[in-house]
Amino acid sequence: MTGQIHKIESMGLVDGPGIRAVVFLQGCPLRCLYCHNADSQGSGGQTMEAEALVQRLLRFRGYFERSGGGVTFSGGEPLAQPAFLLECLERLKAAGIHTCLDTSGVGSGDYDRILRSTDLVLYDVKHEAPSLYRTITGREMDAAKDFAEAVRRSGVPMWVRHVVVPGLTDGASHLAALRDYISTLPNVQRVELLPFHKMGAYKYSQQGRPDPLADTPAMDPQQCALLQTTWFGSWAGKRGEAV
What we know:
Layout: E1 2-12, E2 20-25, E3 46-49, H1 50-57, H2 61-67, E4 70-75, H3 82-94, E5 98-103, H4 111-116, E6 120-124, H5 130-137, H6 142-154, E7 158-164, H7 172-182, E8 188-195, H8 201-206, H9 221-232
Parallel strand pairs: 2-4, 4-5, 5-6, 6-7, 7-8
Antiparallel strand pairs: 1-2, 1-3
Helix pairs in contact: 1-3
């Protein structure tokens, strides 16, 4: 089974517990206004066999075992390559590696089987209101809801992530509604607000595409941290703890 790889980071520290290898798969069905990996949305990337990728990842086993880390699949959207993702997850679980899925929940495949080989879901909540979800992503919210229900069935722990964009997702009414929405999601252990940044803006010009948020400033990290404490302090967890 082959898949398309956008990039691999060998020493990730923010995409799940411990030190992690992060595999960014190519392709995504969403077109989020604040996407910082716009070059991962379409086709392309490096073609790799699942077995070869897993053998490469297992070289970092020593780091995983010492730190309580493992492997995180991100993107793009990893669920856009479900068969390849599933084979990689099953091979890693058979080798005793902690697995994490960083996803918006929009893709395809046998979610129940995928989640059986997943130890943790990093769930990227775009918006809680269907109309604004559509504005931000270009898609309907139904697919994300289906994935959340699969997580409920599986019992896999979930960390919720949400990007805070000035003037778009930083308002009090939105954060209050978001908190209410997250309280309905299954198995939530932690909520992480991520400040919108401009580091991926150059990728739009490289592709000859307009940046949808070219005139939007980056989110102040200190203000984002304050919003985190104010609205989601009860879901705060210690970075690096394993689940």
